[in-house]
Design goal:
By secondary structure, the chain is of the alpha/beta class. The protein has 13 helices and 14 strands. The chain folds into two domains: 211 residues, Rossmann fold (3-Layer(aba) Sandwich), CATH 3.40.50; 140 residues, Rossmann fold, CATH 3.40.50.2300. The chain has a seven-stranded mixed β-sheet, with helices on both faces. Helix 9 links the parallel strand 8 and strand 9.
């Protein structure tokens, strides 16, 4: 830890003045490309890169091209720190975008603050990035609380659920989802009947499942990434558990559905991006076209859409951040956004509010696919 603190201080002294030099604006991304959450990490990278490439093909931003430079942290917070420091020192990045995982994003907050480095769209709805407002952190997605509120409200009002349990990752992320679930239940005069935790980086769900079965729940919130969530769903269905299963966008969307197979049928999932089938929304159509124009190992999905949406917001801010753009100008450009239209989705920021939008959309797994949620009765 002393080595890291010392290195941060040293690099901060020799860091650039916070503006993009030459004809390239380098944006850093440190997330999981090969580890247990690689589905989300690769998808975020594909979405951001696709939009930046589309902008570059049209001349860039104020004559400057945008380059995405990436470091792989394998979902390990220590590697997130090391990766970001390397990008700052060697690539002279202007900003960082799209970390995957609450603990990973939290691990780099001291560096972000030290460098006054804009940190756009940590892929987490945790309170750590929202309360109190951190000047450098800019959130483009709804919070965990907003997602869980929507899930719990739906299960209570439409499903008649009264006995809730939670399966959660035993770390900063999972405990945040746990706290949000308890807060949501209080609004309905309810409390958890069972909790089941598993250790980060594992798919050891047996003990958690046993604890949850003992509570006889009629609804279970999954506070996990897609791998453990899929294992839990398969094990629960194998044991004959008929409870509703529900999770948030943090579970990785289609990654969870594919990993869980038939066990995902009927699972309810909240999303922080519009339904992908609704191409009447200009933003969805634009992102789909950008992502499919340059096919990679990941296609158009909820996470690539989130990456594209994030990248578009960054371009809007860069256009008003000066020429050459400065980090301070970039932050001020975000804080001045009032009903900034991304193409059917509007962003609103201020000095006291660094969460640009709070939209939550519900989907359900039917026939092995995520489709817009209509009713639990269908």
């Amino acid at each position: 830890m002393k080595r890291i603190i010392g290195l941060v201080a040293l690099l901060a002294m020799v860091a650039s003045l916070g503006f993009a030099a030459d004809d390239v604006i380098k944006i850093g991304m440190v997330n999981d490309q090969t580890g247990p959450n690689k589905g989300a990490g690769r998808s975020m990278k594909v979405g951001v890169h696709a939009y930046f490439k589309a902008v570059n093909e049209k001349g860039g931003v104020n004559g400057k091209k945008i380059e995405l430079v990436n470091a792989n942290d394998q979902y390990l917070p220590d590697k997130t720190v090391d990766g970001l420091l390397k990008l700052i020192e060697e690539q002279k990045i202007f900003a960082v975008v799209g970390t995957i995982g609450t603990s990973n994003g939290v691990s780099i907050l001291p560096i972000v603050k030290e460098y006054k480095l804009p940190f756009v769209a940590p892929r987490s709805g945790a309170a750590n990035f929202r309360t109190p407002v951190i000047r450098e952190v800019l959130n483009i997605r709804a919070s965990h609380q907003e997602e869980v509120d929507r899930l719990v409200d739906t299960l209570v009002r439409e499903g008649g659920a009264k006995r809730f349990a939670i399966f959660y990752q035993n770390d900063t992320f999972g405990t945040d989802v746990l706290n949000c679930t308890e807060n949501s239940l209080k609004r309905h005069g309810l409390s958890l009947v069972a909790k089941g935790a598993f250790e980060r980086g594992t798919q050891a769900v047996t003990s958690a499942l046993a604890s949850i079965i003992a509570g006889k729940p009629d609804a279970i919130i999954l506070g996990s990434i897609y791998g453990p969530g899929a294992e839990f769903a398969k094990a629960a269905r194998k044991e004959g558990l008929k409870s509703y299963l529900a999770t948030g966008s943090f579970a990785g969307g289609s990654n969870l559905v594919q990993a869980a197979g038939d066990a995902a049928e009927g699972l309810i999932m909240s999303q922080v991006v519009p339904h992908l089938q609704d191409l009447s929304l200009p933003l969805t159509k634009e992102c789909k076209e950008a992502i499919e124009k340059n096919p990679e190992e990941v296609n158009f999905n909820a996470v690539t859409m989130e990456g594209c949406m994030t990248a578009k917001s960054m371009v809007l801010a860069l256009e008003k951040a000066g020429n050459p753009p400065t980090r301070e100008g970039f932050l001020k450009a975000y804080e001045s956004m009032k009903d900034a239209d991304l193409g059917g989705i509007k962003l609103n920021f201020s000095a006291d509010n660094h969460q640009g939008q709070s939209n939550v959309y519900l989907e359900i797994v039917q026939g092995g696919k995520l489709v817009p949620f209509k009713s639990l009765k269908n």
